[in-house]
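hey so i finally got around to running both of the ones u sent me last week. sorry it took forever, my laptop kept dying halfway thru and i had to restart like 3 times lol. anyway pasting them below in the order u listed, first the sequence line then the structure token line for each. didnt double check formatting much so if smth looks off just lmk and ill redo it

first one:
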Amino acid sequence: MVKIDNIELPDFPLLLAPMEDVSDPPFRALCKEQGADVVYTEFISSEGLIRDAAKSTMKLDIYEKERPVGIQIFGANLNSMLQTIDIVEKSNPDIIDINFGCPVKKVVSKGAGAGILKDIDLMVKLTDAMVKRTKLPITVKTRLGWDHDSIKIVEVAERLQDVGCKAISIHGRTRAQMYKGDADWKPIAEVKNNPRMHIPVFGNGDISSPEKAMKMRDQYGLDGAMIGRATIGYPWFFKEVKHYFKTGQHLPPPTIAERVEMARRHLQMAIDWKGERLGIVETRRHYTNYFKGIPHFKEYRLKMVTTDDALGVFEVFDSVIEKFGDYQFS
């Protein structure tokens, strides 16, 4: 069993990574159904929250069926981050996660996200103050370092643990790498193997198959996997990994009917949550993976991502069943 503070999780839990414009309540709910053990919100700007920006406050919505759920926040100003804790607590999440890893320029330029990797003392100070502000467990998501020459993740993790961080998720790239090259899990294993570490250490980056998840567990000895890009438009990934762990066998891929049904539910939930226009637009990024591998599918995908009314998109789904219903995935 793995524990984040008092939250009990199974051995080697699978966590849905916080992803901007992806891990909203509808998608988190689908991933939870398919076996995700912990889900995280999209990252939320502390400055946006304290200014009551609509886009930021909407991200605080969580559903009971998602639990345990973490709300992830980012920022570099101590006062703003502490005010954010007070706002976030009202949504009653199970975990508050701090993003010290986002590599995007507009975040980094403000000294937040991975930008804080240039100032480890500030990173520790912020974490310490936030732990003292709330009874909820504070966890951290970060990267190996700012660049290859400044990797001190073993020391950083130790210092975060010492000020009360309850778990750490580490993406196996530096900020300089962005998402290029291969994720390096060895430094994450060094954090886990540090005899001083006793909080869970979760690995993140390049977990694109059940085999890779197993490698992270068995070869690198990490406590769990935080999975991001492999789940976009494919919430079944969690179930497939767990089945592989149990049996050593791959689950058959979902059928056309199952894919259409999942896409249909996803779109309807998104519309119910954020309205027709936004629901349609923000679900589009998932369709490539929902229907990946179907030959001669371009025309249908194009219709899905250009149709502007819900009824029209649902009609495209119906036509996919009619046209490709018998297609067998290998």
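and the second one:
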Amino acid sequence: MKIGSIDLGKQPVLLAPMEDVTDISFRLMCKQFGADMVYTEFVSSDALIRHVNKTRNKLEVSEEERPVVIQIYGKDVQSMVEAAKICEEARPDILDLNFGCPVKKVAGKGAGSGMLRNIPLMFEITREVVKAVRIPVTVKTRLGWDANNLVIFELAEQLQDCGIAALTIHGRTRSQMYTGNADWTLIGKIKENPRMRIPIIGNGDITSPEICKKHFEQYGVDAIMIGRASIGRPWIFKEIKYYLETGKELPQEPFSWYLNVLKKQVIQSIERLDERKGILHIRRHLAATPLFKGIADFKQTRIAMLRAETAEQLFSIIDSIPNNYNIIRSL
């Protein structure tokens, strides 16, 4: 699959953009485990053009993580164009427009998936951003605002006409948020549409290598994007790539190997921020990881892990977890 001149190979697997998750250290880790392309946290165009430092810091990319995508969101043409130009100066390989984020503070203000209620403006922003930058521009969106407004089939063709180089579709509506099951049926129909010339990337509920392979085969998408299933489990990319190549499950590592990956995430988070902020940031990964699911009487240990305030306390708790625990592969 190619986006512009960027060749991602056959059946690429991508790391989705996720706020407070896909910082540079997590992206690098997922890249090392086999992610074919990684996305930054989404960047507010308004905050970017106001030179908010926290937002500017999200533009940091490294050579080791390429190809890397910066994703922006906003609700008006001028700020999105200005932000796109600023992002281009950070030298990402691709710029992605977020028309899919469902959270109220974004969609409720007309940005993200809020654009699904103002499609003419979505097209205007897309056309103007494509004209404003030299790098490929892509879009990530959803099936529609709600079940009564599944606009994605027509929307896909029109976004292609605006000049985008690829389209990522999350198989839910905005009203679903992250509930229910992702519906890939429309994603598959868009891929089958002979008028579509750009790559179609599927996203939603890809939680195992088996599901990933099945969706590639069943829906014919050019790439698959992994989001929440990577939180606390960056090695999922290694598992998926192995399964796609061999049709077999990747042999398990010792339990201590997975614990060390999580500890490395803690260390990197602390180095990037500081001890207090770094531990707060990494709690989402510790809470979401499937690594501890199934361990008997683990509730108090989990609570202690999420309350730890220093690396010493946290590592002491992690090191107390029995290393002979067998991972349940189905997780």
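quick thing i noticed on the 2nd:
The beta strands are 2-3, 6-7, 13-15, 37-44, 68-73, 94-99, 137-142, 167-170, 200-203, 223-226.
anyway thats it, ttyl
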